[in-house]
Design goal:
- With 378 residues, the chain is α/β, with parallel strands linked by helices.
- Helices cover 40% and strands 12% of the residues.
- α6 links the parallel β4 and β5.
- α2 packs parallel to α8 and α8 crosses α12.
- The longest helix is centred in the last third of the chain and has 39 residues.
- It is globular, with a radius of gyration of 21 Å.
Length: 378
């Protein structure tokens, strides 16, 4: 399997598919119905919620099931900002569009990052003022793999909140993170990271697409995106996607169980790949922070190459790679993430994203890099 776009989508785990299967057929009932068969389906949802809460070190009411990461991000942003229309928010310049777009509908400041993709903490401090109600910084970047210092951001926000309280300012200062790329490889304990809200996405963790979670710390009140029957604590009305919820929980449990061993395995593959690139393609540039990076992510600039042509040639040879985020692949504009780290348009359009996963072997990553070398030399 020569698939190298795991940041865009992961194949569903057989364990997850098996857990979901009954809820497509035999256990099809509406969990809001009162008869016993429907209540058994309701119990399956609550068991899934409990399983997710245990992994996150959270309380079950803090877990809100959504239709994927985009909806969870929108619920976090709109949910806070709609309650505080006179306030502002601050988000990092390298966020996914699912954060940038909703945040851009309000008074929003965009925090720059350093050339390695890590957030500029001094700039963040200067952008937050007495009317800032929400800060959103993604845990791990979907394009260049950079892991952000969330605990340091949380410390800054706690200190600012304490100073506000002393000065009689009662406006809250919430911290949200888009952690969709994180669960396969990183610890995802909201209390340890210091976040008030966290977005997760089933389609990135070998679970079903259009499944996700928003962790919402107890005491935070959000405006709902979808109104109706009052499901999910009145934050996400509509008959629950039971199969998706059960599948999400199963995927998160499996990712959690193998996180350390899989991270170590992929770190070895990453090390092998970097050594090959350094030796065999010395003109190539490796982007992102290598001390703070997802172990499955390689983002490479091949100066002078046309990344779309390179991607298509690799595809013809059976290798699937990406030129950027899959969600904005149809845009002709260079990636906003690469612009944010100071990359020129020319270099951005000469860059590939290679992301590995559970099925990736040492032989496959070396075959891909050899194919890249051959194509570039031509």
């Amino acid at each position: 399997m020569n698939y190298f776009d795991y940041a865009a989508a992961t194949p569903m785990s057989p364990t997850v598919l098996a857990a979901m299967q009954p809820y497509f057929t035999d256990a099809f009932y509406n969990p809001s119905a009162q008869y016993l068969a429907a209540q058994d389906v309701r119990k399956a949802i609550e068991k899934a919620r409990s399983d997710v809460a245990v992994i996150l070190g959270a309380r079950t009411p803090e877990i809100i099931f959504t239709a994927g990461g985009t909806e969870a991000n929108n619920l976090a942003i709109h949910g806070v900002m709609a309650r505080y229309p006179e306030a502002n928010c601050v988000v990092s310049a390298v966020e996914h569009d699912a954060v940038l777009e909703p945040a851009g509908q309000y008074d929003c400041r965009f925090c720059p990052v350093k050339p390695d993709g890590r957030i500029d903490l001094d700039a963040l401090k200067n952008l937050i003022d007495d009317k800032t109600v929400l800060v959103s910084v993604m845990y791990a970047n979907n394009e260049i793999g950079t892991v952000q210092p969330l605990a340091q951001v949380a410390k800054i926000l706690r200190e600012m909140q304490a100073n506000r309280t002393k000065n009689g300012n009662t406006l809250p200062l919430y911290f949200h993170t888009d952690a969709c790329q994180a669960p396969n490889y990183l610890q995802i304990l909201p209390n340890t990271l210091g976040v008030d809200m966290m977005t997760l996405n089933g389609g990135k963790i070998y679970g079903p697409k259009q499944s996700g979670v928003l962790f919402v710390k107890s005491g935070i009140e959000l405006e709902p995106l979808v109104r109706g029957g009052g499901q999910e604590r009145n934050l996400r009305s509509g008959t629950e996607n039971v199969a998706g919820i059960v599948g999400f929980a199963a995927a998160l449990k499996e990712a959690h169980a193998i996180r350390e061993t899989e991270s170590a395995r992929l770190s070895e593959l990453l090390h092998t790949a970097v050594n090959f690139i350094t030796k065999e393609m010395p003109s190539a540039v490796l982007n992102g922070a290598f001390g703070y990076r997802l172990p499955n992510n390689l983002h490479i600039t091949f100066p002078g190459a046309d990344n779309e042509r390179l991607m298509m040639c690799l595809d013809e040879q059976g290798f699937q790679v990406a030129v950027g985020s899959a969600c904005s692949a149809s845009s002709d504009e260079p990636s906003h993430v690469l612009k944010a780290i100071g990359m020129s348009d020319a270099d951005a359009q000469s860059s590939l994203r290679i992301t590995m996963g559970r099925q990736t072997t040492r032989e496959e990553i070396l075959e891909l890099l050899k194919a890249c070398k051959d194509l570039i030399s031509k």
